[in-house]
Structure formats: structure tokens, C-alpha cells
Amino acid sequence: MTDSLIDALQAKHLRDLKPYESARRLFSGGQDWLNANESPFVGEYNLDSRKLNRYPDCQPKAVIQAYAAYAGVTPEQVLVSRGADEGIELLIRAFCDAGQDSILICPPTYGMYAISAETFNVKVNKAPLNADFSLNLDAMAEFVGKVKVVFICSPNNPTGTQVAPEQIEQALALFAGSALVAVDEAYIEFAQGQGWAGQLANYPNLVVLRTLSKAFGLAGIRCGFTLASPAIIQVLLKAIAPYPLAEPVAQIAAQALSPQGLAWMQEKVEVLNVLRQRLQDQLQPLGDFVRVGDCQANFILLRSQYKQGLMDDLVAQGILIRDQSKQLGLENCLRISIGTEEQNQRLVAAMQRFFEEKAI
Ligand SMILES: *Cc1c(COP(=O)(O)O)cnc(C)c1O
Asked: Which one of 33, 211, 327 would you pick to mutate in the ligand 1 pocket, going by the greatest count of ligand atoms within 8 A of its CB?
């Protein structure tokens, strides 16, 4: 087949779509990966191969029950999927009619909401955050009745800010009769607040997204959770693949959610929160850095007018951080995931050299 035939066959809405520029697609080399908010720590897990000849459970009970207990919800309120990204995709596919319905996002925020919607020919409306990264509820109110799913990221990637509980409550009330409000809590373990899982019974339109990719150090297994009313979960189960979770993934997830697994995760979160503060204290005096947003997650966001030179310099040394300057309101901003103490110190040393040579 010729390329022109493939172009002609390709679904119309995909023609101008650029794939998500994941950290791993942008840079595959390097040694210090501080660009994808992964954990620098990895646990140890056992694999029992005796069931690998069988198709896995769609929703493995051990995983569902363990996550429900961890999140303080009932098993009927939990859906497990191939990462939180699949949870986002399922919400869009299960609740939006392609070519007709819309979602609402509040940029600057996580990129997959828009990409996922565009992939399914669902329109993306935007109510940008205020300058202090709080929700602009007046702007959001304009979209009541016009969107099916509202995505709120808290703690927000890449600003590290948490949305005030009163604001989430107002958003839930605003869209009570017309849309789901999905609160993406991928970083909740690093944050001070409680999160919204405990509120599911009070808000029928509330959805909470969670993941094992960040605090649990398991980005490689692709495992995430959608917490919502049983009615919402049942609709998502209509749209999910028959075997979304490979058997080894289910086994590892169950171990990560065991009492020992949870204790390991909590210890690492404490370590990373200390390292984050230390890194921030060390970086700030080095150059012209201005801290942007807050630190309720495992990364920091800094603005520097030298961001391009800095990025290039770091990449040349195998240190990868993430350019966020294309995001709304985040000109010249760089996001740095917290690594091990050694990785953070290599980053500090590299940045120190960079600014010394610049002599600023
Ligand atoms: C990393 C991230 C996710 C994706 O989680 P996966 O479980 O790895 O798919 C979702 N939301 C936000 C805000 C993230 O930063």
C-alpha cells in the first residue's frame, strides 16, 4: 500500500493529531531520568508463573480488594486499568459520543486528557486556571451543560498545586446535573491533603483517578485505578478491554498493596519529600530560578530565562528534565522530578557549572 492510500484511509480526526510527547518518546538515552515523575526507587516482587497459561481476570479480586481497603472505599467503587491513563480514556469513551460531545480541562495541566479526547474525536474545552493556579470557577461555569466530563488535576501536574477543597466542592455542585468531575490524584501520596476518595458517597458525579506509577514506583507495570460510584464503574466496565491487566501486573500490584508494600511506599514518599525540599533549597540560589506553583508532588517547577541552554547542557550530560514552557502560562518553565540523592546532586552540580560559566 502506498503512503497516500494510508493518508486517505486514516480517520479524519487523526490527520492533524500529534502523538503525546511522553518523556520516553522525547529522550530515550541518558542516565538520570528526572523527566517523567517516576520514582527513582524500585521494590522487589515475586512472580508465580503457574497461571500464565490462562487469560487473566478482567478485574482481579485481590487487587481490587486491596486498593479499596487502601483508598477507604468499597470494592464496587474501584476499577483497575492499564494505568490511570486508561482510566482517563475509559471515562471519555464511555461517557462521550464521538464527534458530538466535549470534555473540559483546566490548563496548564496533564496532557493526556486532551490527547485522549482528540484520539476519540471528542472536543476539548478549556477553562484555564487562575494566575495562582486555582480553578477559575466563573470560566468553568460557562461550560455547564456543554461538557460531559470535567478533568481536575490535584495535585496538578506540572504546577504541583492542590485545588482547595471548597473549589472542588463548587465544581462538583456546578456540574452536579450535567457532567462527571474527575479529580486526578496521581500524586496524592505526596500531598498534604486527604484526597476525595472518601467523598464518593456524597457526590454521585465524582470520579477519582489514582495510579501505582508515582509513589508506588511501578510506572513500568501500567496499573491505575478509577474510583467512583458503582453505577459509573459499571458503565466503564462496558467499555474496558476483556483482559486489561496482564497476570504478572496483577500479582505485582497485589504485592505493592500488601501491608509491607504500603509501608515501603510510605517510607519512600517520606524520603522523596525530604529530598525535594533539599533539592529546592540547593537549586534556588544557583541562577535566576523562580519557583512556580507548589510542591505537593514528587517534582518541582522552576522558571529560568536560560531554560533552553540549560536543557541542552543537561541533556549533553545525560541528565533529563522536562520542558514545560509550551504549556499555557508556563513560559520558560522546567519541571524536575525528584531523583535519588546522587541523581539530585549530579543535577545540582551540572546547574551550578552552567550558571558559573554564564557568570550571572
Ligand atoms: C503520571 C500521571 C498519570 C498517568 O498515570 P499512569 O497510571 O502511569 O497512566 C495520570 N495523571 C497524572 C496527572 C499524571 O501525572
From this structure: 211
Average pLDDT over the chain, rounded to whole? 95
Same domain for 293 and 317, yes or no, is yes
CA of 148 to the centre of ligand 1 (A): 21
Distance from the alpha carbon of residue 146 to the mean position of ligand 1, in angstroms: 26
What DSSP string describes 100-135? T-EEEE-SSS-THHHHHHHHTT-EEEE-PPPTTS--
Best substitution site from 85, 153, 324 to test ligand 1's pocket, by max atoms within 8 Å of Cβ? 85
CB of residue 81 inside a 6 A radius of ligand 1: no
Rounded to two decimals, what is the model's pTM? Answer: 0.96
* Structural domain range at position 132: 54-256
251 or 25: whose pLDDT is higher? 251
Q: Cα separation of 353 and 335, whole Å?
A: 19
CATH number for the domain spanning 155: value is 3.40.640.10
Mean pLDDT of 173-188: 98
With respect to residue 32, please indicate whether it lies within any of the assigned structural domains. yes
Q: Are residues 246 and 122 in the same domain?
A: yes
> Which atom of ligand 1 is nearest the CA belonging to 109?
13
**Whether residues 239 and 126 fall in one domain:** yes
Is 213 close to ligand 1, i.e. is its CB under 6 Å away?
yes
169 and 24 within one domain: no
84 lines ligand 1 (CB under 6 A): yes
Per residue in 256-285, pLDDT (tens digit) is: 999 999 999 999 999 999 999 999 999 999
Same domain, 96 and 245: yes
Angle at 308 between CA 304 and CA 312, to 5 degrees: 125
Q: What is the pLDDT of residue 140?
A: 98
Q: How far is CA 320 from CA 126, 164, 273, 305, in A?
A: 30, 32, 20, 18
